[in-house]
Amino acid sequence: MRDEPNGLERREFLKTGLLAAASTAVLGERIATAAAPADKKIAPSAAGIPVRPFGKTGHNLPILGMGGSAMVQMFIRAYGTDLLSMDDRVAMVRHAYDGGIRYFDTARVYGESESIVGRGLKGVRDNVYVATKCHMTEPGQVRQSVETSLKQLDMDYVDCVQVHSPAIERVGFEGAMKLHAELVKLRDEKMLRFIGLTTHVAFETVLQMIETGGFDQVLLAYGYFRKGMDTMLSNQKVEYRDMCLVKAAERNMGIVAMKVMGANIFSHNAKNIVADAEPAMLERLPAAAIRWVLQDDRVSMLNIGASMPADIDKNVKTLTGNLTFTNEDRRLLADFCTKAYEAEPVKAMKIT
Fold first, then answer.
1. Is residue 198 part of a domain?
2. Please, how many CA atoms are within 13 Å of residue 350, restricted to the half-sphere of its CB?
3. pLDDT single digits (tens) 283-308
4. Domain for residue 182, yes or no?
């Protein structure tokens, strides 16, 4: 990691970045006997959202998933909107299901996210694919972490537990593979069905992990705006990210794109990033960002967070419409991002 460049170095980063983007329950005794059905068939969606094979999992899923970080107290301000009540957020998860979404992503470190997702999916659990994450850095903590997630979700099993990016960044390849070994044990006990990994920035390490062949899916920061979690991605990081995509596709992994909206760049917070942007521009940004990512047919799933039900409705409308990435989309994203890269909140981010 290096400090944010200034002057010419930063201008070169922005120039190359824009060009690159433009071109392309109570658990108790059930823990030990939880049965993750090997022949599980997720209920089809009647919403008309495009379906793609989800890697080697055997599932064909609507390509729009719901991320669980944009609706929790700890992150809501970054998304530029207000926090809904707990009951309204639970209802929003069910609204997503009713709207055709079948993939739900959450994590222990997202505060109340797991409990919201679990409550929202009560009664339809076997119709959906639920992925959570393990952020522990010590192998001996993995079992307890997963058991706690199952309790928060009120589920007997999850479809996937992912080694979370913060853990990978802290313990590196060798440490992360020890965490993977513990998840294999829990998979054998049918507490989970598949094993994944995630990253906003540790693409070099994740590439090594993908190459082991031990993972079923990968969640990568992959959007037009070159943003990780709270840093900007250097050209080198983007190259490694692209290598992750190549290797994951070769190994028939489910490839999930996060940061499609740049986390808080293209959605509600866009008006705070580029204050003079016209409302019509802000309204069209999310759809253009979605269509940009969908140019890559290796992507199995768009993991997009929602802060309010209208976000879900808007994304479903986009996904059931014309998904051709147009020159108008290209100009829109380029014009907005030219200003966004120079906005103070973005300039304050380090480039990693």
1. yes
2. 7
3. 999 999 999 999 999 999 999 999 99
4. yes
User: Hey, CA dihedral for 239, 245, 246, 248, is it positive or negative?
Assistant: positive
Q: How many domains does the chain have?
A: 1
Between vectors from CA 200 to CA 197 and to CA 203, what angle results, nearest 5°?
70
Report the alpha-carbon distance of residue 220 to residue 201 in Å, rounded.
9
Any domain includes 285: yes
Task: Print the domain residue range for 75.
Answer: 31-347
Domain CATH number, residue 213: 3.20.20.100
pLDDT at 18: 55
Residue 21 has pLDDT above 90, yes or no: no
User: Does residue 12 sit within a domain?
Assistant: no
pTM: 0.90
